[in-house]
Design goal:
The complex is a heterodimer of chains A (about 400) and B (about 120).
Chain A: H1 3-7, H2 14-17, E1 24-25, H3 32-43, E2 48-52, E3 61-67, E4 72-78, E5 84-88, E6 103-105, E7 108-110, E8 117-119, E9 145-151, E10 154-158, H4 167-178, E11 188-196, H5 200-206, H6 213-216, E12 238-242, E13 245-249, H7 262-277, E14 288-292, E15 296-299, E16 306-314, E17 317-326, H8 333-365, E18 371-372, H9 379-398
Antiparallel strand pairs in A: 1-18, 2-10, 3-4, 3-6, 4-5, 5-9, 7-8, 9-10, 11-17, 12-13, 13-14, 14-15, 15-16, 16-17
Helix pairs in contact in A: 3-9, 5-9, 7-8
Chain B: H1 15-21, H2 26-35, H3 38-48, H4 52-60, H5 69-91, H6 95-102, E1 107-109, H7 114-117
Helix pairs in contact in B: 2-5, 3-5, 4-5, 5-6
The chains are: A alpha+beta (about 400), B mainly alpha (about 120).
Chain lengths: ~400, ~120
C-alpha cells in the first residue's frame, strides 16, 4: 500500500460490511424480467425527484414530466392557494392527455377532446352536457392525484397512491443535510441531458465510485490537469449510508497548474472568488456527494452545485439529467462567466463519463460474464443493488410470490 | 450599435472574431465550439487570451442595466472564450473526442441572459 491508498478511509461501517464482498450477479444489469420488477417494486412506489420549486414561481405555474418507465405523464402545478399538487395528465372522461406543454401558466386545464375543464387543484369544474352522463358525483371525476412533496426546493413525486413513507421520513437525515445547501434557495437553473444505451444502474454506478476517475477522466481530471495534492486520484475519505441512501466525501478539485492552463486557471480562480463572495463556501457539506435512492445525486460543492438524475427508460436504456441550480439571476459579468465556466467544466467531465458506460452495458449484455466484481471503493454500487434487491423482495412478498 | 465598432472602444483587436464567436446563448456558444476547426479556435484563443483580463474588468465595472449592445456582445465573446479555452487547454488534441460526446449531451435549458433582464 502506498500513501494514497492509506489516505482512503476504508468504508467498513457495520452496514457496509454486511453487504459482503462476493461478486454480484450481472443479470440485474440487463435482464428484462428483472427490470420489469424494478419498475413495479422500485420506481412506481418510491419518491422520485422531478423538478424544483423555482419552476413553479407563482399560482398557476405548472410543469409536466414524463415518467417513461411508467408510461405516465405527470402535471405538477401550483394552485391559487399556493399549494403544489401533482396529477396524472389524463382527462377523467376518456383518458386524453390534457396538455402537451412541458411548462406554462394557466388558470385551468381544458381537455382538447371534449373540453372538460379542470382547476389547478385538479377539480373538474364543469363539463359540456354533463347531465347526459351517468355520474352521480362530479367530484369522482377530479384528476387522479399523485403524491408530491418537496425537500430543499426539490420536488418529489411518488406514483404509489398511498406511499408507505412520507418524503421526509424516506429521505431521513440526508434530507435534513441537503436542506442547508444553496439548492434550497435556488431560483433558476441550467440543464443538460443525455440518453444512453445502458441500464439505469450501470449508468448510475459510474457516478458513485471514484476508482475510474484517473482512467476515464484523463483529459479533465487526471494529473496534472486538476492535480489536487495530496489526493490526486480523488479517493473518498468517507462513506456513509442511511437506509437505502448513501454519501461519499471526496476532497479534491484543485486549481490546474497555471503554466499548463493559463486561461482556464485564471477563470477557475475567478469562479472560486465569486463563490467565496457569494458566501456559499464553508458549509458542512462542501465536499459531500449525496446519493438518494434510487436515482438522484446532489453535489454539495457550492462551486459546481448540481443534481444528476438517472431515469430508467428500458432494461438497456437510461436518461441522465444534470441541473445546475443558482440563487438569483446573474448580477455581474464575473458571475455570469463563473457560472458558465462551472457548468461547462463539469460537462467536460460528464462527457468523459459517458464515453465508457454504454461499452460496459454491451459487454454485460453479451452474457460473457455471469458476475461483476466490486472492490471496496465500489461499495456504494454494491449498496444500490442490495437496496434494489431488498425492495423487489418486499414487493414479491406482498404479491404473495 | 454601429457597423464600424461592434465592440466597446479598446477591444478592436477582437472584431474579427465577433461574427462567429459572440453567440447570444450558452447552447449556441457550445455549438460554435463543437462545430469549429482547431485553426479557428487557436486564432481566437491566441488573440483573446491577453485581452481577456482587461475585457472582464471592463465588463465587470458596469451594471448590466447600463450595458449597450456593444457591451453585451463583448460579454458574449468572453463567454465564448470560456468554451474555446476548455477546448484548447483541457481537451487539446482530443477535442474531437469531446465534441463527439458533447453532441450527445445537449444543453436544453439555460437561465436568462442579461439582455433578457435589461429594461426595455
Amino acid at each position: 500500500m502506498n500513501d494514497l491508498t492509506n489516505s482512503f478511509q476504508k468504508p467498513f461501517s457495520d452496514e457496509l460490511r454486511a453487504l459482503g464482498t462476493d461478486p454480484v450477479s450481472a443479470k440485474a444489469y440487463y435482464d428484462e424480467g428483472w427490470f420489469a420488477l424494478e419498475r413495479e417494486a422500485v420506481f412506481k412506489r418510491t419518491w422520485l425527484n422531478v423538478g424544483h420549486v423555482c419552476e413553479l414561481p407563482e399560482p398557476g405555474s405548472f410543469i409536466v414530466r414524463d415518467l417513461e418507465f411508467a408510461r405516465a405523464s405527470i402535471i405538477i402545478a401550483r394552485g391559487k392557494d399556493g399549494e403544489i399538487r401533482a396529477f396524472h395528465n389524463v382527462c377523467t372522461h376518456r383518458g386524453t392527455q390534457l396538455t402537451q406543454a412541458k411548462e406554462g401558466k394557466a388558470a385551468t386545464f381544458s381537455c382538447p377532446y371534449h373540453r372538460w375543464p379542470f382547476g389547478m387543484d385538479g377539480k373538474l369544474l364543469s363539463a359540456p352536457d354533463f347531465e347526459r352522463f351517468y355520474i352521480a358525483d362530479k367530484s369522482t371525476c377530479d384528476l387522479a392525484r399523485v403524491s408530491v412533496d418537496t425537500c430543499a426546493g426539490l420536488i418529489f413525486v411518488n406514483l404509489d397512491r398511498n406511499p408507505k413513507q412520507g418524503l421526509k421520513e424516506f429521505l431521513g437525515p440526508m434530507g435534513e443535510m441537503i436542506s442547508t445547501l444553496p439548492i434550497g434557495r435556488a431560483t433558476t437553473y441550467d440543464e443538460y441531458v443525455y440518453d444512453i444505451d445502458a441500464n439505469w444502474k450501470v449508468t448510475f454506478d459510474n457516478f458513485q465510485e471514484n476508482y475510474h476517475l484517473r482512467f476515464v477522466h484523463r483529459r479533465t481530471n487526471g494529473a496534472p490537469a486538476l492535480d489536487s495534492k495530496p489526493n490526486p486520484f480523488h479517493y473518498p475519505v468517507a462513506y456513509d449510508v442511511f437506509g437505502p441512501h448513501r454519501m461519499d466525501t471526496s476532497p479534491g478539485g484543485g486549481i490546474p497548474e497555471p503554466e499548463a492552463k493559463p486561461l482556464v486557471g485564471l477563470l477557475l480562480g475567478k469562479l472560486g472568488e465569486q463563490v467565496m463572495a457569494d458566501g456559499l463556501v464553508g458549509g458542512p457539506h462542501d465536499q459531500d456527494y449525496f446519493i438518494f435512492y434510487p436515482n438522484l445525486y446532489v453535489f454539495g460543492n457550492p462551486t459546481m452545485h448540481f443534481t444528476h438524475l438517472v431515469m430508467p427508460l428500458s432494461a438497456g436504456k437510461s436518461r441522465g439529467v444534470f441541473r445546475f441550480y443558482w440563487i438569483g439571476d446573474d448580477r455581474t459579468a464575473q458571475e455570469r462567466m463563473a457560472r458558465e465556466l462551472a457548468l461547462s467544466f463539469a460537462r467536460e467531465i460528464h462527457v468523459e463519463d459517458c464515453e465508457t458506460i454504454a461499452s460496459a452495458q454491451r459487454g454485460i449484455e453479451s452474457g460473457a460474464i455471469s458476475h461483476v466484481h466490486f472492490q471496496e471503493q465500489e461499495v456504494l454500487c454494491r449498496h444500490l443493488l442490495a437496496s434494489v434487491q431488498a425492495q423487489v423482495a418486499d414487493y414479491l412478498k406482498e404479491q404473495g410470490q | 450599435m454601429t457597423a464600424q465598432a461592434s465592440l466597446p472602444q479598446g477591444f478592436a483587436a477582437l472584431e474579427p472574431f465577433v461574427a462567429y464567436w459572440a453567440a447570444p446563448s450558452l447552447a449556441e456558444r457550445d455549438t460554435r465550439r463543437l462545430d469549429s476547426t482547431e485553426a479557428q479556435r487557436l486564432a481566437f484563443y491566441d488573440a483573446a487570451k491577453s485581452i481577456a483580463p482587461p475585457a472582464c474588468d471592463y465588463l465587470n465595472a458596469k451594471a448590466f442595466a447600463a450595458y449597450d449592445e456593444a457591451d453585451h456582445r463583448l460579454l458574449d465573446l468572453m463567454l465564448g472564450l470560456i468554451h474555446v479555452a476548455l477546448a484548447v487547454e483541457i481537451e487539446r488534441g482530443e477535442e474531437h473526442i469531446h465534441a463527439r460526446g458533447a453532441r450527445l449531451m445537449p444543453i436544453v435549458r439555460e437561465r436568462r441572459s442579461p439582455r433578457a433582464m435589461a429594461p426595455a
